[in-house]
Amino acid sequence: MTQSLRVVFAGTPEFAAAALAAIHAAGFSVPLVLTQPDRPAGRGMKLTASPVKRFALERDLKVAQPTSLRRNGKYPQEASAAIDMLRATPHDVMVVAAYGLILPQEVLDIAPHGSINIHGSLLPRWRGAAPIHRAIEAGDAETGITLMQMDAGLDTGAMIREARVSILPDDTTGSLHDRLAQLGADLIVQALRDLERDGALPSTPQPDEGATYAEKIAKHEAALDWRRPADALARQVRAFDPFPGAFGTLDGVAVKIWAAGVSDAAPAAEPGTIVAVSTDGVVVACGEGALRLTQLQKPGGKRLPVREFLTGANFEIGQRFAIPESAAKA
């Protein structure tokens, strides 16, 4: 009987946990799991284990949480100890999914079959930290998963295989994330089975043509600039659900906007002006067209459909959402 492929896994959030669960369920040996150190989370800011760590501990898998893997970084001793641990852990391949730490070439080269990354876009489009958010925000018609042989560049390695999905008109980052996480889990298991059977995975060099960079989401981006077109703002609302949550500021109060669509109205009003208020939605004039807000949240409150939200909020025609300072200066 041939020995199962031994897989060191590196990942942190739910996206990665789905892949680890699939690899484990498929019967591959996982001698070591790398994940980021516990982080403060929740109202009490208690140290919280990552989804990957929680899964690994439930299955009695060995877990390591180095602060860094770069010998020339801020934590050289931790990095050296982690690299020594990797070298001392017999394994055939390393699988990486949304790990969040930089992996130098020295680390990528330890496993005989190198390191395979599960990336949430159709490379070379949306290299970088936030490919799911940016695909929705940009209005892409489709996205997918790319398995990539990692190199020291930022998502520049040779492509092993991909799987595509359509971006639906009502997709949020949350809903698309869940579909892509499952797609990535299925794709990596297929690839590992092929690697186990064939001893190699063919790959194709990644073109630079058509490359875009999915910059990490910054909280200040969540403020809606009402001077933009309504369709762009509707995409932004979907892209920023569940994090960081788009918002508009009305009379000094930040109101989260969780669902919105383009309105048929064509108001001749200043961007940010409320032009209609009803149980069907709050309609706000934009630089082009108007946006109908259908799910909102007050500070300290819950996400509510507009019908319920308006029972505890006084929105009036003529009120105007502020233009964000960062946008006003741009």
- Pattern of helices and strands: EHEEEHEHEHEEHEEHEHEEEEEEHH
Shape: elongated
Overall SS class: alpha/beta
Compute the average pLDDT. Answer: 95
Q: How does this model look, in words?
A:
With 330 residues, the protein is α/β, with parallel strands linked by helices. It folds into 2 domains: 6-214, Rossmann fold; 222-329, Methionyl-tRNA Fmet Formyltransferase, Chain A, domain 2 (Roll), CATH 3.10.25.10. The chain has 9 helices and 17 strands. The protein has helices at residues 14-25, 51-58, 76-88, 105-108, 131-138, 173-198, 230-239, 306-309, 325-329, and strands at residues 6-11, 29-34, 39-41, 46-48, 63-64, 93-97, 115-119, 127-128, 142-149, 159-166, 213-214, 247-250, 253-263, 274-278, 281-285, 290-297, 304-305. The strands form 4 sheets. The protein has a 7-stranded mixed β-sheet with strand order 5-2-1-6-7-9-10. Strands 12, 13, 14, 15, 16 and 17 form a 6-stranded antiparallel β-sheet that branches. A two-stranded antiparallel ribbon has the order 3-4. Strand 12 (247-250) and strand 13 form a beta hairpin. The N and C termini lie far apart (65 Å). Belongs to the Fmt family.
SSE map:
Layout: E1 6-11, H1 14-25, E2 29-34, E3 39-41, E4 46-48, H2 51-58, E5 63-64, H3 76-88, E6 93-97, H4 105-108, E7 115-119, E8 127-128, H5 131-138, E9 142-149, E10 159-166, H6 173-198, E11 213-214, H7 230-239, E12 247-250, E13 253-263, E14 274-278, E15 281-285, E16 290-297, E17 304-305, H8 306-309, H9 325-329
Parallel strand pairs: 1-2, 1-6, 2-5, 6-7, 8-11
Antiparallel strand pairs: 3-4, 7-9, 9-10, 12-13, 13-16, 14-15, 15-16, 16-17
Helix pairs in contact: 1-2, 1-6, 5-7
